[in-house]
């Protein structure tokens, strides 16, 4: 493995000896950003809280551009606006005035061990006591129920009363691999994953981001305000409901998911296997027309696939957000 020290570089204006932040939040992409939860969380944190960039990774060394191609504009007779990938470390200040770190960017394609070693070095240099990863994952759940969180940790003491989700083998993500490596070094890591309805995986779903913010506040001791997230969630919920109301087939599927969800919550335990859950193919068939309508009606007012723009998200009265309790945690819609 190449040595990790040359992979990350601090900004020239940053004296790392003066940075001592307790929490590092990591939102590096994984298989897919279900519900755009990570992207919305990054945007919310960086637009809501005071921040500065501390440094960045040399992404050219850890990116497979053929597998994950950046975008560029062809403007008549020339190219413009190449969107170079970036993996950056920021220092933010929460509402209470406490600083914390945020590492954003795409999932590394190459040199996972080296990137994990570089993150371990950052944790050591900046006196980080807790690392928290945040993401959205697709699940067979209805949008009409609170968003739940799956929580994992390197030590059970980090999440008192947390319940496991069973044992199975799966393809690894960088986040999962990094968590194990940091845990092997006796470092504390908590993983937060918001459950996004499978039929909304490719659409912005601010309800999942709200659940992640509450998870950060509860489990990492941060004080991050909701800002415009709740207003955005209400608008998106209205768009989704409008689509559901015109599809009897989709109403039936969602009713089935609601019954499943309610039985699960009554038992307060996650199933170890998927015996009683509809598989992705079942749900995919049932919501095919719904997803097609999102593509066909892009830009229309009732389109659940298009998030509200900045003007639509303007201020307004805010409801109480999601609240966390015994695992699983959940938030209001």
Automatic annotation (TrEMBL):
<feature type="region of interest" description="Disordered">
    <location>
        <begin position="290"/>
        <end position="333"/>
    </location>
</feature>
<dbReference type="Pfam" id="PF09754">
    <property type="entry name" value="PAC2"/>
</dbReference>
<protein>
    <submittedName>
        <fullName>PAC2 family protein</fullName>
    </submittedName>
</protein>
<dbReference type="InterPro" id="IPR038389">
    <property type="entry name" value="PSMG2_sf"/>
</dbReference>
<feature type="compositionally biased region" description="Basic and acidic residues">
    <location>
        <begin position="321"/>
        <end position="333"/>
    </location>
</feature>
<dbReference type="InterPro" id="IPR019151">
    <property type="entry name" value="Proteasome_assmbl_chaperone_2"/>
</dbReference>
<dbReference type="InterPro" id="IPR008492">
    <property type="entry name" value="Rv2714-like"/>
</dbReference>
